[in-house]
Every structure is written in C-alpha cells, then in structure tokens.
Amino acid sequence: MKPNKSRTMLTDKNYNYKEKNNLIRLKIPTIFILICYLFILSCYQMSGVTNQEIKIQNVNRSLMCPVCPGESIDQSQHPLAVQMRNVVETKINEGWTENQVRDFFEERYGTAVLLEPSKEGVHLVIWIIPIIIFIISFGALIFVIKSMLRKNQLLKKKT
Amino acid sequence: MIVDTGAIALLTALIISIYSSFASLLGGAWKINELVTSGKYGLFTIPPLLGIATGALIYAFITHDFSVKYVANNSSLDMPDIYTWVAIYAGNSGSLLFIAFVLSILIVILILNTSKKLPVSSPYINFIVSIQLIFLLLVMVALDNPLDRLPVTPEDGKGINPLLIHFGMFIHPPTQMTGLVAISIPFSIAMGTLIANRGQFDDWIDIGRTWGIISWIILTFGLILGSWWAYTILGWGGYWAWDPVENSALMPWLIMTAFIHSIMVQKNRRMFRTWNMILIILAISLSQMGMFINRGGPVPSVHSFAQSTMGWLFLIFMAFTLLSSITVLFFKSNTIKSKNTIESIYSRETIFLVQNILFIVIAAITLWGTIYPVISDLFFGQIVTVGEPFYDKMNGPLMLLLIAIMGIAPLFPWKKGSNIKIAKNLITPAIIGLLPMAIMLAIGFSKIITLFGVWIFGIAATIIIRELINGTISINKKYQSKYKTSIKSFFSLLLSNRPRYGGYIVHLAVLLFAAGVIHSTFYAIQKDIPLSIGDTAQVGKYSFLYVDFRTNELENRSETTAIFNVSKDSQYIGSLESNRTFFYKFKIAATRAGIRSVPMEDFYIVPSTFSKNGDAVFRVYINPMVWIMWASGPLLFIGAILSIWPRKQNRRKKS
Amino acid sequence: MKLFLISLLISIIPGIVIIWPFIFKTNSLELLEKQISSDKKMSVKWEAAISKLTTAKLDFHIGKLSNYNYEKIIAEQNDEMLKIIEKLDASNTDKKMFLEKLQEKIDSKI
After folding, report:
1. A44 located within any domain
2. Using one digit for the tens of pLDDT, what is the confidence trace for B294-307?
3. B396, B390 in Cβ contact below 8 A?
C-alpha cells in the first residue's frame, strides 16, 4: 500500500473550514468588553488620598524597619516603625523631598535601611548584572536558534 | 516509651533506605532482578516507619512531653490544643521529619507508577530518589533528631512564634514543603532514565510531565496560600514582599513552569532533551537552596522561624546534587542527541524556548537580588537590603513580557508557521485589546504601564477565547449529529487535546491573577486615620463608624478588638472586626485585619497601637481585584488537572 | 523489656520484607523486559503519530495551518504509521483494516 492512498483516507474533504459563524465570532469582543468593564469599575475611585500622603507612603515603602528584618516601615507595626513613619510624615510636611528623607535615614541607620541599594558607587553592580544576564541569555538564545536553523537547512539539502 | 519507639523507627528507616539505594543501583547495574525488587520493597517499608516516628512526635506534642527537646522548644502549655500538632513543622528537625515522611509516600506512588511502565530505568530512578531521602534522614539521625531527649525536663516549653498560630499554618507550610520536595520526583525520573541509557526512547516523558505538573500545582498552591496568609495576618495590605524565603520558593516554581512547557516540545517533537534535563536539574538545585535559605540562611527574612545551623548542609547537598547531575548529563549527553531541530523561527518550539529563557532570566535576577546582600557584605563590607522596589523594577517588565508571549503563543503552530498568517491572526486581538485601554484613558487613568498591561491582557485573553470559540465552532459543525449544543462541543473540545486546552484554562487563570496584581499594585488606596470611638471617616466610596472596642486580657496575650459599621455609597453593608493581639512572652503583636471582600475590591482595615480609651490609628486599604486573584486559584487548578488527566487506555489490537 | 520487644519488631519486619524477594523468587524478567521495551518504543511512536495527526487536524480546522503544510504533515505521519505497522508483523489485509480503524479512532478523538 502506498502512503498517498491512505492520505486521502485521512483528509476530511467534506469539511469547509472557511465558512464562519459570524454571530458567535462577534460575541468575542462583547464578552471581552464585559471583562474590561470589570477592570475599570474596580479602579474607578480615586479620592481621599492627597499627593502629600502618597509621597509619604512612597518613602515608607522604600525604608526598611531596622528591627523587623524583611519588612518595610510601611508594613511593620513595630513601635520603632511607627515612630519612623511619624518622622517621615513631619519631614515631608516640612517640605523635604523624598530623596532627602531617604538620605536622612541612611545617615542614621546605614545603607541597610534602604530597601533598594543606591544607584551610585559600588552598588551599581546590582542594577547592571540583571541587564547583563538578560543580554547574555538572549544572545545565547539567538545564537542557538540560528545554529539550529542552519543545521536544519543542511539536513534539507541532504535529503 | 512511644517517643523511643519513634526514634528506633527513624533509625531503621535510615538503614533500610541506605540498603535500598545500594540494592537498586547494583541490582539495576548487574541485572539482578531480586536485588531490585528487594530494594523496592525496602522503600515500601519507609512510610510506615516514618509514620511511626511522626506519630510519636505528634503524641509527644499532644501530651506536652517536654522531656523531648523539640517539643520543649516549639510548644508550650498555653498554646491552643489544635495548634500543638501544627507545631511539628514549626522548627527545623520536625519539618525535616515531615518532609521525609511526605517524600517517602511520594516514593511509594512513584514506584507503583514506574516499575511496570519504565522497567529498565526504574531501579535507577529508585536509586536517585532514595538518595534524597537518605540525606534528610541522615541529617535528622546524626545531627538534629526531633525525638532527642533533654537531660532535664523543663516545666513548660518555649512556645512558637505567635504569628504562626493561624489557620493558614495548617495548609501553607506543608503545601510549600511538599511542593519543594515533590520536585525530586520528576528529577529522579529524568536522571534515572539518563543513567539507564534510555534517554533516546523518550518513554519517561508522560510520567515525568505528569509528576512535574503535580509538583508545580502543589508549589503554586503553596505560594498562593502563603500570599493569602500574608494578606490576612501580617496586616500590611499586601500579599507578596519579595522576601528571601518567598523568593526561594518562587525560583523553583519559575523553573518548573519552564520545564512543564518545554517538555511538551520533547513530547511532540523529540527534541530539547538536554535542555529539559538542565531545567529539571536547576529546579531541584533551587528547591534545595530554598530549604537552605529557610533554615538559617544568611539573609534576614520574616520566615526565619525554622532557623538552625543546619542550613549549610543543605547548601553542600545542593552543590553535590548540582555537580553530580551535571557530570552525569555530560557523560551521557551522547545518548540523548536529537535528530530534530527547529525548522522555523515562527514555530511553537521557538516561542517555548523564548519563554523558557525569560523564566530563567527572571529566576536568575531573583537569585541575584536574594544573594546580593551577602555578596555586598563579603566584598564591599557594606550591609545592604534588596527589597521590593528592586524586584518591581527588574522583574515587573519581564513578567509583562512573559504574559505578552503567553498571549501570542497559541498563534504559533508546531514545526513551521508562516509569519504572514500569524500577523493576520494578531490584528483583530490587537484592535480588540485597544478597547479597554481606550475606555480607561477616557475615564482618566493615565499610568502608561497599566494601560500597556491592560492592552496586553486584552490581546492575550482575546486570542485564548478565540481559540476556544473557533475550536468549538469547528467541532460543532463537524459533529452536528453527535454534539447538538455548543456547550457539549465545547467540553468535547476541552477533552480532545487535554494538554493544550488545560493549558489555555491555566493561562486564563494566570491572566486573571496578573490583572489582579497589576490593579491592586497600581490602584490601591491606602490611608492612615486616627479615630476615637464614635468617629466616622470616609475613604473612597466607603464610610465607616468606629462603634466599639473591647479588650480581652488572657494569660499569655491581650486581645484588642475594634468594631466598625461600614457603609458603601451611604448604604450600610455590615460590621467588621479588626483585631490586635499582643503576646507578652514574645513581645510581638499580631494583627488581624477586618476584610470585606467582593470581586471588585477589598475593604481592609487594620489597627496599629491602641490607647487605653480606645483611640487608635487605623490603616485602611481599598485593594481592587484581590478577590479575583484568589479566585483564579481554583480555575488554575482545574486547568492543570485537565492537562494531566489521562486518556482512557485504548488497547491496541495486534491482529 | 517491652521497649526491647517493640524495637525488635520494628527492625525485623522491614528486614523480612527486603529478604522476601530472595526467598520467593519471582520469574526472571530479562526476556520480558526486552519485549516490553521494544513494544514500548513502538507504542510511544504510535501515540506520538496519532497525537500529531489530531493536533494537525484541529489546527487545520481552526485555520492555523495552511493546506499545504497540513497535507505534508498527514503524509509524513501516515508513512511513519505504516512503518510501525510493518514492524508489528501485520499481514497485508490486516493493514487495510488497521488503517480504517485508525481513521475511526482519529475521528472519534476530536
């Protein structure tokens, strides 16, 4: 038996895939818009929080509570964290910028109080290495894919 | 006496497992069937033995037998009764016993599953998996036995961190530990096959994939439950803090996710064999590293409650696992060479590879951030912290990219696709995806990252939904007589290619989850409000009245509860209790937030310190879509189970 | 004394269990193993071919696969399946029946 005989056997001639059921297909966007509404409704309220407060929260989130490892002063309910939050609040209300407040705490508690290392000096490595990882891995990926494609073309020529 | 029985059982388990590993290896190498069977039977006896040991420990906890060191260190008389036995995995050696017990049960299931299906590689699989078991048992017996006695029996135990006394403790730690240890099963299957020189037959793929997905599901649930626990108990309105221990659980999960995708390439195209081996080796190494970080790792963390000096042993064992498996892979790499290659850039193979690399990059960045404090301390002599802002900036965009890839992946067929066709199929979703973005812009949201995110979600969701609908239509058309309704044909579509459609369902769940993450990160409202009894405050649509407060002084703790009447859009919706408990002995306060959760948003209120007359500062969060995030869990579970649900075995007739 | 007895029991039972296979020998599995492995190989290939066919078919119906590629995949897979059948020592008439059954199977799977 030759393969092409069985080929006809397995192909389904009667089926016409180009025929489309437009009605159902129109439902896709409709369903989707419903989902979007859900998104929008969920975040349709912005009130009660002033810019000043958001600034304070931002600073709080970037400072670590020195006595409760791994938690920012925003998260922690430790008395020291509460005290630090108060300091942040007064400083921001006095008109300090976010970075000034951070520097103030860094001077008092050391670099460990910052939840992200500064982008200056030796700690620049922490920001550079991820980028290098990214570039190297994708470089390797492109190289591998290219060499595989080449191998594939060689194989095709042989057959 | 029961405790001593347990200790003996533990020792016996160690001896038997050492015997079994040798018996399996030698029996496999010398083709002595009896030896292999004997090793197998030996492994069957481990779960009962470890069951006796675990039972003895639980017994010691329930009877408050403080002559046992571990019990004295991890429980106290004033602990609630149900939590005494939860304490068995609160410390180092007890959690080791738990892990070993779970692993031994998994091993039995593994043996029953593989000994007939993979007769040749089975002995080697048993060998590899029993080494993992031996390590755990050896650490326990030699260095930190959970059933060791103290020379003097203390009157009361030290007790455990009160933060752990929570319902979540029943589920989150065991699930997480089970998930981490379950990775050693697919790892053993892969390595065993490799050692048995059966890599080129690809007969382990189905079993390996099933076990990979099972461990992935358990890990996922461990992570979700952990986030849920953090959300309800830690009282900071968030669920993920990029804490070192969280990271160490996330990294193996990332690699396992890459693995269960790329193994599909091996299943369908007989290629990427070496790559899959590398992925599973990475996954097991990272899971062992997770155990290391959890036990006295060098990085401070909120999870540092199982602290011990034993951590370094795990690091050494991880190095051993990594080096030995890489060596094996190197020497056996010629047995798993594949003839097939990628035939086009526009193929599913390529997109899987890109996705794999992205997962690895995210895991690598996470690893880098986790160990950087140590590096900085060693090389620069400066103690630094790497926290949320770093990971948000680095991993956030990559994860969005990952979701974009997840979205367009269904457009890429196996082997060879045409770029024109893919582009054509992409146009409609891209336009539909713009709709929600436009509406958001019109209402006045202008954060570019969320707009972009919403666009990507739109594309991804449209593509998946379209796939499902098109498939249903085509089946409905073709088998009109068989499946009359479109619902019936939809289900038959899901069952027709389970890995694929199960995967789509999981992807939908991931989209929901990611949408929840993005919205709750960028559109959460947070406010600190000082209140006295009788005050009313307003945040967003919610207003709440501070009705009452009561203090409950107990022997070991004082509980303060505030009661609120909450209304939304000036309609009363119920009362909420928000609680703060102070534990005298530990000088730790635990808060329990009052949460009202509806699909759109959570109203979350948590107290900080109370004064005597009930004045307190309350923190209020309105977190959008958190409910949806948790709800995506079950959907994910259904999809994942569907993707591994076996077909009915159709016996092939030879006539 | 009681403790001694219990510990003896705990260590002896597993001992008996691991000696068991040496005393009561099960049949040597080497021949069986070989057969299983070659059978397995075939059935793995067979399943792979079937899954490829069904996937291709589905892709084609959804419109993701061009006509040309579809035909090519079908032809390839049929060749592969024929080879497998060849190895399974089926007689010629059986082969035809086999393919027909296969057609049914694929149809029922979608």
Report:
1. no
2. 775 555 555 555 55
3. no
